[in-house]
Design brief:
alpha/beta; Rossmann fold; four-stranded mixed beta sheet; disordered N terminus
Length: 283
Amino acid sequence: MKTFLLVLMAFTAVCFMPATAQTKLSSIKGKLFIIGGGNRSLALMKTLVATAAFGPKDFAVVLPMSSEEPDTSFYYFKEDFEPASSIALVNFNFTKDNTNNKKWLDSLEHAKLIFITGGDQERFMDVVLNTPVYAAIHKAFANGATIAGTSAGAAVMSQHMITGKELTDTGISRTFNKIHQNNIEIKEGLGLITTAVIDQHFIVRSRYNRLLSAIAKYPTLACIGVDEATAIIVQGNKITVAGQSQVVLLQNPVGLQITSGGLIKMKDIQLSIFTAGDVFFIK
């Protein structure tokens, strides 16, 4: 009997270990709404509003630090957003000198929606990384906020952030002209999604070589290309597609090798293309 009780206790402890280990993941209540750039239709904005699930006292915060013209970025987002919702919308243009603004940080932590505008993802992270702003975004996300972004605001969502720069072919600006080792520049992003790399303006700018370079660098991650006027809604490991165009998913490369000349090669890779209403899962 004593032996049986010991076995039962050990079994019970093991059964509860996974739940404990997953506490951090399961405690994240928020969602991500990642737009690939381009036009934001009224339908897409209504989907964003529905995703955020505003209550009567809720409000939204815009973070325009990616943009060279932050006030203009806020203006255009407000113009798109207001026909879809009457929720209060505020603009917090943090700089390196005011990342400790307690009033703004408190509002950021309690926002129901945080929207990150387009521009330059490195510009945004230069202001935010390792600051109270970064911590406030994560706290809001853990407590149930929807974190949204477009273009550069999409790229910053990943832990491994594509900067858009090439390291060996520095003259190429819009896309990559080869699939070569050590050509893609990756820096630290917000880390709101850790099991995928996000690319934006994907189909319209034909960024396949760039995403293939990313999956060669991080073969265990999902690499997701979101086209313009299109979004992915991320809740846990579930991803739902919304908008007018497509989302490309690259994952599970087989036989990944690098030649002596630095060329990337694979025997196989899983490529999927999704449209509005489709659902897929990542690790």
